[in-house]
Amino acid sequence: MQHRKSYIATIAGTLLFLTMSVTAQPGSITEQSLLDSLDQAKTGERHAFWLKELAFHYKSDRPATAHSYARSSLEIAEQLNNQRAIADALHVEGAVYWYQGKVAEASKAFFKALEIREKINDKLGLARSYNNIGNVFSWQNNFQEAGLYYKRSMDLRRELQDSSGMVYSLVSLAEVAALQDDLKEAQRYGLQALDLARQIQKPDAEAFCYEHLGQIMLSKKQLDEALDYFLDAASINREIGNQNQLAENLLEIASVKALEGAYAAAIDSLYESVEISRVIDANDLEAEALKKLSLNYAALEQFDSAYFYAINYQIADEKITGEKQARVLFDVQEQYRSQLEKTGLLLRQQRSNRLLIWLSVAIVALLIFFIRLMYVKNQRLQRTDRKLKEKASEIERVNKVLATQNEDLRNSNGSLREFAYVVSHDLREPLRTIGSFTTLLARRFPNDLDSQSREYINFIVKGTKHMSLLLDGLLSYAKVSNTESLALEPLNLNTLVGNVLEILDAEIGDTQADIRVDELPVVNGNRALLSQLFQNLIANAMKFNDKAEKKVWVRYQDQGDMHQIIVEDNGIGIDEAFKSKVFQIFHRLEKNKYKGTGLGLAICQKIVARHRGKIELESVLGEGTRFLVYLPK
Predict the structure, then answer these.
(1) CA–CA separation, 588 and 311 (whole Å)
(2) How far is it, in rounded angstroms, from Cα 11 to Cα 32?
(3) Domains and CATH numbers, the chain
(4) Using CA atoms, how far apart are residues 354 and 448, in angstroms rounded to an integer?
(5) Category of 603 on φ-ψ map: left (φ > 0), alpha (ψ -120 to 50) or beta
(6) Could you say which of 36, 116, 117, 303 would form a disulfide bridge with 122 (CB–CB 3.0 to 4.6 Å)?
(7) What share of the chain is helix, strand, coil (3-state, %, to 5)?
């Protein structure tokens, strides 16, 4: 079903491109330029042409207005008996129906246009009609018939040397092959389309091919190839400034990353998609990105962030529903205004001795139309109201589920914290007993113990001390993991890091480390937790350093809506194979050479996550490590 929806979206995109290639003329870019061209039309043929262009312009946002213009174009073309203009008007009217999802009406208009074009042998028009008929058969799951029409369209475009049209015909053949699970054939057509797009040097067509090849690879579960194609599409769309397609590419990239289990990388792509969607007011793409952000954070078990983006998704989805309702009402008003203007024009053209009779007829027709319009409007409003109520009910249900889950999560975390406290406190007493009596044993019988016994006693004492440190770390980790709201305040990091260096003064003196701190920003955070964060990072930078001249740098970079604080050293570095493990609890490198519990970096990651930020590392073995801390502004 999901692939089916993807294909319908592809059909709509292909139809859009092909129809644009049919109608695009200099000056047909904006609504005002189209209206100006219509006013300046000197002949009936040009008048019909610009009415058709206006119909295409309004096809998705104001379908009733688009239908009005398409029918006016058709009426003029029929009065002039211009068969080509009649077919073009029917073609556009079918496109408007298709965008409304009225496939039966669209099919009827497409076949009428096809019949006329076959009679007058309009090859370019036939290529367009064949492609549209292929879309209809594909929608009906008649893939064999759809493929035949797509091939006819491609053959005519090849004969006319319409390379751009051939690209999209090949993509249509690829899609219909994919729907028949013939993925090998689908990939073959897709690669042919890509080669042709490169030959004619059309970046937008090349990006279009990359995107659909990615979808085909995704259907084949070949995630690496799918990701490469989506990345190529995103790169081109970023370069040519096609923001809408770039936002969609980022959603596709995030989907592949999530399937690979790389949820953090998926989240990065989704953040960018949200930013682009907001700039271009693509509310549907923003809502989809917010929903996927919630799912990826849930997969990472960061439920507070998952809940935050779930709420934002609900808000965005409600906004889309409201815009659809407003667009429906606006389209009804436009339809009424358009009908009034059309009626006035007809009355002026037909003014004669029978003016009063025709005027009466027009008024009666207008009243009937108005009553019908009000009835349709009322029905639409009722349907919209029902949908809004259903949506509100669904949101209320989801909120209740989330509230229950949050309560369960709080209870679970409370139990875990209580367990950590109990373990930490209750285990200390037997540890102290073991350590004390072992020490007493060594002191009482100093001459009766051989060297091996004394070595065993030393092992026991060291073990109890290390276990005590582990319990301290476990208790600190439990405190940081507390899900209660943080007490946040504006903090000058220059002052905070200065205090941390005073605490670490003894260690700095012992290691003779050269610590340099750049000018740091003011952030909104928890003083105790951020102090612990920088104390852990700077202490690690000094501890894991085998250089004669130990150096530590604390730097700052502005990253838009995020602060980036960098803690860098020239120490031992971290092997590439272990980078993904350093933030796990109790995981220590160089256990025999360096002291520690393996909880320091795990605590750092928890602190940053609680501030809705992230922490990353870059390292070269033997040369040093850079920890990059991102905190929201």
Answers:
(1) 38
(2) 29
(3) 1-160 (1.25.40.10), 166-241 (1.25.40.10), 489-632 (3.30.565.10)
(4) 134
(5) alpha
(6) 117
(7) 75, 5, 20
Q: Is residue 618 helix, strand or coil? A: strand
Beta carbons within 8 Å of 424's beta carbon, 6+ residues apart: 471, 472, 474, 475, 478
Q: What is the spatial distance between Cα 145 and Cα 235, in angstroms, rounded to a whole number?
A: 36
Q: Specify the residue for token string 């009225």.
A: 102
Strand locations in 34-106 (E): none
The residues, ordered by sequence, that sit 6+ positions from 157 with a Cβ below 8 Å of its Cβ are 127, 163, 165, 166, 169
Closest CA to 210 of 182, 176, 243, 174: 174
Contact (Cβ atoms closer than 8 angstroms) between residue 70 and residue 92: yes
- Token duo for residue 63: 């379908």
- Helix, strand, or coil here: 490? strand
**Token code pair at residue 523:** 């952030």
Short-list 315, 324, 339, CA closest to 381: 324
Distance in angstroms (rounded) separating the CA atoms of residues 8 and 5: 5
Q: In the predicted model, is pLDDT for residue 616 greater than 90?
A: yes
Mean pLDDT along residues 176-190: 84
Task: Please tell me the distance from the alpha carbon of residue 216 to that of residue 190, in angstroms, as a whole number.
Answer: 9
pLDDT at 554: 97
- Give the amino acid at 445: F
Task: Report how far residue 561's alpha carbon sits from residue 555's, in angstroms, rounded to the nearest whole number.
Answer: 17
| CB distance 212 to 175 below 8 Å | yes
- The CA distance from 206 to 193, in Å, is 8
Report how far residue 97's alpha carbon sits from residue 108's, in angstroms, rounded to the nearest whole number.
Answer: 10
Whether the CB-CB separation of 446 and 515 falls below 8 Å is answered with: no
**CA–CA distance, 204 with 215 (Å, rounded to integer):** 17
Q: Give the three-state DSSP class for 407.
A: helix
Mean pLDDT of 374-388: 79
- Residue positions counted in the chain: 633
**DSSP class of residue 430?**
H
User: At how many degrees (to 10) do helices 2-23 and 44-57 cross?
Assistant: 150
Q: What Cα–Cα distance (Å) separates residue 365 from each residue in 358, 369, 370, 373, 376?
A: 10, 6, 8, 12, 16
Does the pTM of the predicted model rise above 0.70? Answer: no
Contact predicate 174/187, CB 8 Å:
yes
Position 556 confidence tier, pLDDT thresholds 50, 70, 90: very high
Angstrom CA distances, 110 to 134, 171, 599, stand at 10, 20, 68
SS3 per-residue string spanning 326-370: HHHHHHHHHHHHHHHHHHHHHHHHCCCCCHHHHHHHHHHHHHHHH
| Gap between the terminal Cα atoms of the chain | 41
Q: Is the dihedral of CA 213, 159, 28, 114 positive or negative?
A: negative
* Gap between the Cα atoms of 429 and 75, Å rounded: 96
Which pLDDT score is estimated for 15?
A: 43
Give the C-alpha separation, 186 to 179, whole Å: 9
Which residues neighbour 222 within 8 Å (Cβ) at sequence distance 6 or greater?
A: none
